[in-house]
C-alpha cells in the first residue's frame, strides 16, 4: 500500500511482542480448567459469553494467518449487538465455533497463537515497520500488533469480569498492560479534540489511578495532540479515574468507578462521555 500521510509509528518489535505473548499466556492461564458452565458465562460484551470472546480472538489471529472467514447458517448482521461489517466478521467466527467444547476451544487458541508467535518472531524489521492498514488507520505493522495487545488485554478483563476473577496487582504489573495503555493514550488527542470537542487552547490532563497509574496530557491547537508536559502551565481540565475504569470506558464497557472532574468540568464531562472510541 502507499505510505500514509501521517508519520508511521516506530515501535520496538521485542517490546511489543513481549507484551503480546504475555497477554496470550495470561489468557491461557485464565482459561485453563474452566468448566463448560464457566465457558458459557456472560461477559460485559453484549451477546458474548466467555466462549464467544475466545472464538473472536481465534478468528482474528486466524485471519492474520490468511484463513478465510467461515460461512455460517445465520445472517449475523441482523443480530442486535452487531453494528457494522467488522462486527459481522467477528460474529461469523463466534457462530462457527459456538458448539466447540471449552477445552477444545482453548487448544485452538493455543495452536493459532503458537503459529502467530513463530511468524511474528521471524518477521524482519522492514516488515515490522512497513505501513499497513490497522484498526487505528494506516500505520506500521508494529502499531497494528500493539493494537492486538490492547485488544487481547481488554478481552482478558472481559473474561475476568464475567467470571468474577479480577486481576491482582501482580497480574496487572507487566508489559501487556503498559502497552495497552500506551495504545489508548495514543488515541486521546483524537478523543479530546475531535470527539470531546475541547476548544482551542485546552490543556487536558487525564489522571489514571490505581496499580496502572499514569497521566495522559493533551493540548488542543487546531487538533488534539498528546504531549509529555504542558510547559509549566496548569491543565484547563482534569479527569481523574481508575486506569481499569478508563480502559473499560474507552472500550465501550460499563465502568462503575467514580470519575473526578476539575477545572472546566463541562469540557471534562464531554470528553468522558465520548471516551468510547473503539470500533
Automatic annotation (TrEMBL):
InterPro entries: DinB/YfiT-like (IPR034660), Maleyloyr_isom (IPR017517), MDMPI_C-term_domain (IPR010872), MDMPI_metal-binding (IPR024344). GO terms for molecular function: metal ion binding. Coiled coil: none annotated. Residues 22-160 form the Mycothiol-dependent maleylpyruvate isomerase metal-binding domain. Residues 179-269 form the MDMPI C-terminal domain. It comes from the Bacteria. This is Mycothiol-dependent maleylpyruvate isomerase metal-binding domain-containing protein.
Amino acid at each position: 500500500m502507499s505510505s500514509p500521510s501521517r508519520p508511521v509509528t516506530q515501535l520496538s518489535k521485542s517490546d511489543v511482542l513481549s507484551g503480546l505473548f504475555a497477554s496470550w499466556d495470561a489468557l491461557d492461564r485464565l482459561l485453563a480448567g474452566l468448566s463448560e458452565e464457566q465457558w458459557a458465562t456472560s461477559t460485559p460484551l453484549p451477546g458474548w459469553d466467555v466462549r464467544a470472546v475466545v472464538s473472536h480472538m481465534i478468528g482474528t489471529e486466524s485471519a492474520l494467518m490468511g484463513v478465510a472467514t467461515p460461512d455460517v447458517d445465520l445472517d449475523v448482521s441482523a443480530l442486535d449487538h452487531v453494528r457494522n461489517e467488522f462486527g459481522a466478521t467477528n460474529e461469523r467466527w463466534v457462530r462457527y465455533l459456538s458448539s466447540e467444547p471449552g477445552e477444545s476451544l482453548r487448544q485452538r487458541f493455543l495452536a493459532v497463537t503458537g503459529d502467530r508467535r513463530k511468524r511474528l518472531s521471524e518477521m524482519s524489521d522492514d516488515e515490522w515497520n512497513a505501513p499497513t492498514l490497522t484498526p487505528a488507520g494506516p500505520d506500521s505493522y508494529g502499531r497494528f500488533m500493539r493494537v492486538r495487545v490492547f485488544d487481547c488485554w481488554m478481552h482478558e478483563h472481559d473474561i475476568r469480569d464475567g467470571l468474577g476473577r479480577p486481576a491482582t496487582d501482580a497480574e496487572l504489573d507487566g508489559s501487556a498492560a503498559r502497552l495497552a495503555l500506551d495504545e489508548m493514550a495514543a488515541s486521546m488527542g483524537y478523543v479530546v479534540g475531535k470527539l470531546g470537542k475541547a476548544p482551542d487552547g485546552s490543556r487536558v490532563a487525564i489522571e489514571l489511578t490505581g496499580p496502572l497509574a499514569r497521566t495522559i496530557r493533551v493540548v488542543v491547537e487546531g487538533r488534539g495532540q498528546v504531549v509529555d508536559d504542558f510547559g509549566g502551565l496548569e491543565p484547563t481540565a482534569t479527569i481523574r479515574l481508575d486506569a481499569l475504569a478508563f480502559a473499560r470506558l474507552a472500550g465501550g464497557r460499563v465502568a462503575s468507578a467514580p470519575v473526578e472532574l476539575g477545572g472546566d468540568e463541562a469540557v471534562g464531562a464531554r470528553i468522558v462521555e465520548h471516551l468510547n472510541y473503539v470500533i
